[in-house]
């Protein structure tokens, strides 16, 4: 965690209906974090957020616990709850584990990619493209998670799927940083076309190479953005 904390984030949230407190609060907080309205490293102050949402602290705490489980927030003992900040080291680790996990997932399903898998991957790619065309950055992050998650779900490997779900929160923060680095409202529209074509093709070695290069490109661009951000922070008086 950084030594200096940004000011607590409390503004900009709409009040929510009482029957959907936890899910609406979690969605609103997640969207604010992914959209950059709550900066990385910001502290969440329960009393201020409860007043802003117009809810009791019970459902707010449930929503915060959900985002902690998703890997978007973290609790520091005796200090508080903070938005996780993605570092260059985090990006390196995310890249290395995703490359290996996704390669393994495709190895498991490669010889049993039937019509259901192909149709589902096409459907999720179309859903991702629709969010990009709509300029909905937050929805595109979730759609990209869903697209990449298809192969994990198809494996039937429960522990692999558990690991994938544990990685999703950090990936959301990682992609949000990547988009902000380039002023994007989602990934490039054609950014997954080659991935999709090879994932449904017959050349396993080409697909293995695409997994490597697809993830390496995003990691290198995001690391450059984070390096520059860290240099700016160090230069501040």
Structure, explained:
There is one protein chain. This protein has 237 residues and is mainly alpha-helical. The protein contains nine helices and three strands. β2 and β3 form a beta hairpin. Helix content is 67%, strand content 4%. A three-stranded antiparallel sheet has the order 1-3-2. α8 packs antiparallel against α9. The longest helix is centred in the last third of the chain and has 32 residues. The mean pLDDT is 84.
Identify the notable features of this structure and list them briefly.
237 residues; mainly alpha; 67% helix
What ranges have pLDDT less than 50 throughout 5 or more consecutive residues?
none
What overall form do the CA principal axes indicate?
globular
Secondary-structure-derived class: mainly alpha
Mean pLDDT: 84
How many beta strands in the DSSP annotation? 3
What is the strand and helix layout of this fold?
Elements: H1 21-34, E1 43-44, H2 46-53, H3 57-70, E2 73-76, E3 80-83, H4 88-109, H5 115-133, H6 137-155, H7 158-181, H8 193-199, H9 204-235
Antiparallel strand pairs: 1-3, 2-3
Short description:
By secondary structure, the protein is mostly helical.
